[in-house]
Amino acid sequence: MDNNAPNTAVDRRDFIVEYLEEHGETRIDQLSELCEVSEITLRRDLEILESQNRIRRVRGGAAPALANPLEEMFHEKLSLNTREKREIARTAAALVQDSQVVILSAGTTTTYIARELIKKQNITIVTSAINIAAEVAPYSHITLVMIGGIVRSGSYAAVGHLADDALDNINADIAFVGVDGVDTESGFTTPNFMEARTDTMMLKSATTGYIVADDSKFGKVKIARVARLDEPSGLIVNRSASDDFISELEMRNCRVIR
């Protein structure tokens, strides 16, 4: 057996989605061979993934799910730096224990974290992101808490007073918050003031709160600050991130995990 073949049904389905996103339409026999399962098992996987709108079945095979116009911008971002984001997601998920309460902000990196967290048992996911909620909802072993508010079409984030008031009454074990900028002077930033406030509330509503960002965000500054460098419990980045930049962050009391 190929050591790289996925070992569980969840891993296998994640692999199928990722493979189709990278390679496009693929025949069933090819996917069956890659996953080292029978075509009957593979067809069942495809049925489940299609019901979750993660792929679409075509004659003799499968293809990536089609995005509607409102999803184009988000899915374009989701396809950028995928290796780094998946690496960060695995690191983040390793910090979560079964039965814990986890807050996830909107964002592409946190979407990958959600996909890792469904492999856990009996956890509660609290999120303001409608796309994350849609992915998590089918799994009966996950308790989903959806934070309401005004939904931003670009990020699928629910923000505003409704979201902030809900978070003010939540006590979570751990929070993961994505940002658009990581700068040694300006800290962690994002382009929208309302979303920044909600993200800040998420960090404060958890016992431990982490910023998650790949190194493409390094040196960038957006208009709204989410947190200073020393405020979160840590920053989770990809392993290939610049040692020099990380040293500068650590000199400013920012704990970096990779």
Using only CA atoms, what is the Rg?
A: 19 Å
Overall 3D shape = globular
Order of strands in the sheet with the most strands? Answer: 6-5-4-9-12-14-15
**Main β-sheet description:** 7 strands, parallel
| Helical fraction | 25-40%
Overall CATH class of the largest domain: Alpha Beta
CATH fold naming of the largest domain: Rossmann fold
Strand content: 15-25%
Q: Treating each run of at least 4 consecutive H or I residues as one helix, how many helices?
A: 10
Provide the low-confidence segments as ranges.
none
Instruction: Measure the end-to-end span.
Output: 30 Å
Helical/strand content category = alpha/beta
Q: Find the count of extended strands (DSSP E, 2+ residues).
A: 15
Helix and strand pattern: HEHHEEHHEHEHEEEHEEEHEEEHE
CATH architecture of the largest domain: 3-Layer(aba) Sandwich
Mean pLDDT: 90
What's the structural domain tally?
2
